[in-house]
């Protein structure tokens, strides 16, 4: 009987897949979908197991499947805007198909669902961060003094800074984190840049866009924030250094400030042991090319 039930569940899932499956990654979202009579699953764990089995089956059949993050609230808003009944499986398929072109997706390549889900959620956070930061930049408008677009000028400046940061970084695997304090929450962007045998640094375009946008927002709004670089090379200590956002510029942190930041518990303020095999350093000098065009409000 249980085997028959599982086959039925997979048939239900197949009807809602057209190359992309919209995945309910957490219990809260799963419960939200249970209000629809046509959504026949009643246990999130079983649902995830059946999704994974179906993904494996499709992979064995040579069928490519993309996994998207299914948000019940966005789905309900989509149905309202289109005048659709959300309790119809075909409408869930239509929404999922649109997710494949507009939302964060991950190709299924045989990886366990337990590994795929965090990657998918991270991708969703990245996209939401970029969209939010880009919206705030666009709202800044033009400089009252010179008429130049503040957001566009800040983005150009941030691009120039990022280029100099990468150009002056030690060789190895680079991991950059930019954080900007704001309302309602701190925005964080991450960028990975690894050396190759040819000496080039391949960059993920989406990561670069997000990172530059968040940095530009910090520069344009003069919100508190910082940028930290960690470089790793086999057989040598990791190097960590960084800058604080100071007004519309980057101010180097001293080695002591970097050490304090990494070796102080954020909540208690107590000292914690430094990592072994890590050098806390002052950053390379970004001058004289540390500027893109000056932000309009500096004119």
Describe the structure.
The chain is α+β, with helices and mostly antiparallel strands and 299 residues long. It contains 9 helices and 9 strands. Strands 4, 5, 6, 7, 8 and 9 form a 6-stranded mixed β-sheet that branches. It has a 3-stranded mixed β-sheet with strand order 1-2-3. Helix 1 packs across helix 3 (44-60), helix 6 runs parallel beside helix 8 (205-221) and helix 7 (150-168) packs across helix 8 (205-221).
What percent of residues adopt helix (DSSP H or I)?
Answer: 40-55%
Work out the strand percent. Answer: 15-25%
User: What is the CA-atom radius of gyration, in angstroms?
Assistant: 23 Å
The outline comes out as: globular
The major sheet is characterized as:
6 strands, mixed
Secondary-structure element order, N to C:
HEHHEHHEHHEEHEEEHE
Oligomerization category of the chains in this entry: single chain
Count the strands? 9
Number of helices: 9
Alpha-carbon distance between the two ends: 75 Å
User: What structural class is derived from the secondary structure elements?
Assistant: alpha+beta
Low-confidence stretches: 294-299
Mean pLDDT over the residues? 84
Features:
9 strands; 17% strand; 3-stranded mixed beta sheet; disordered C terminus; 6-stranded mixed beta sheet; 45% helix; 299 residues; single chain; alpha+beta
Which helices and strands occur, and which strands form pairs?
Blueprint: H1 2-15, E1 20-23, H2 27-33, H3 44-60, E2 66-69, H4 72-82, H5 89-102, E3 105-107, H6 113-139, H7 150-168, E4 173-180, E5 187-194, H8 205-221, E6 225-232, E7 238-246, E8 249-252, H9 255-262, E9 278-280
Helix pairs in contact: 1-3, 6-8, 7-8
């Amino acid at each position: 009987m249980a085997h028959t039930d599982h086959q039925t569940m997979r048939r239900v899932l197949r009807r809602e897949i057209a190359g992309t499956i919209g995945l309910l990654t957490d219990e809260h979202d799963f419960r939200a979908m249970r209000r629809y009579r046509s959504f026949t699953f009643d246990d999130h764990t079983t649902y995830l197991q059946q999704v994974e089995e179906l993904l494996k089956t499709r992979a064995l059949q040579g069928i490519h499947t993309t996994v998207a993050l299914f948000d019940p609230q966005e789905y309900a808003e989509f149905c309202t805007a289109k005048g659709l009944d959300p309790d119809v499986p075909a409408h869930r398929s239509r929404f999922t198909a649109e997710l494949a072109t507009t939302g964060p997706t991950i190709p299924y390549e045989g990886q366990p669902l337990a590994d795929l889900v965090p990657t998918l959620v991270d991708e969703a956070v990245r996209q939401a961060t970029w969209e939010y930061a880009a919206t705030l930049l666009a709202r800044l408008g033009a400089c009252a003094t010179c008429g130049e677009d503040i957001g566009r000028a800040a983005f150009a400046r941030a691009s120039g800074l990022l280029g100099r940061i990468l150009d002056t970084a030690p060789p190895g695997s680079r991991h950059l984190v930019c954080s900007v304090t704001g309302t309602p929450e701190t925005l964080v962007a991450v960028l990975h840049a690894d050396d190759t045998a040819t000496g080039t640094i391949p960059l993920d375009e989406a990561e670069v866009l997000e990172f530059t946008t968040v940095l530009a927002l910090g520069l344009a709004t003069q919100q508190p924030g910082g940028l930290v670089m960690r470089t790793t090379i086999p057989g040598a200590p990791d190097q960590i250094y960084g800058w604080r956002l100071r007004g519309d510029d980057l101010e180097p942190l001293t080695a002591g400030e970097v050490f304090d930041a990494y070796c102080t518990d954020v909540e208690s303020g107590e000292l914690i042991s430094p990592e072994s095999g890590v050098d806390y350093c002052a950053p390379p000098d970004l001058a004289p090319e540390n500027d893109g065009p000056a932000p309009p409000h500096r004119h």
